[in-house]
Amino acid sequence: MRIGVLVSAAVLAASAAPALAGIPVAGVSVDGAPSPEAAAALTDSVVTAAGGDAKRAPGTCATPQCAATVLTGLGAPRGLVVTIAVSGEFHDRFAVAATVVDDQGRALRRRREDCATCTMAEAAAKAGAVVTATLDAA
Question: Per the confidence metrics, is the pTM higher than 0.90?
Fold first, then answer.
C-alpha cells in the first residue's frame, strides 16, 4: 500500500512540467531508505518530476565525476543529480538536494530541502517538488 501512495505522490509532483523538463537524470543517490522498494519509489518520483521515464532507472552515483561520465556518454550538455538522505529511528527524516550540473559535473543550480518528520509519500512529493523547483530556477 505504501508504494502505491508513493507512486500517486510522484504523479502529483510531476503534474506541472518544469522549464527544463527532459534533461537527463545523471544520478540519484538514496541513502538510508528502509527498503529497496522505498528507495526505488523515491528515485521514480525524482525521474518523473524531471520529465523522464521512470522505467529507465538512472545510476545511483551522484558525484560530479559520475555525472560527468554519464553526461559525456549521453552527449548531453547538462543533467540532474539528486541525493536523498533518509534518517531517524522511524525513517521519517529526509534531506533532498537536487543539482543541475554541466557535462563536467560542475553545479549550475541547486536546491535543498529538509523534512524533519515526513511519511514516505510526503518525502516523495517533496523530492519531486525540489526537482521541479531546481529545473524551474532561472
Answer: no
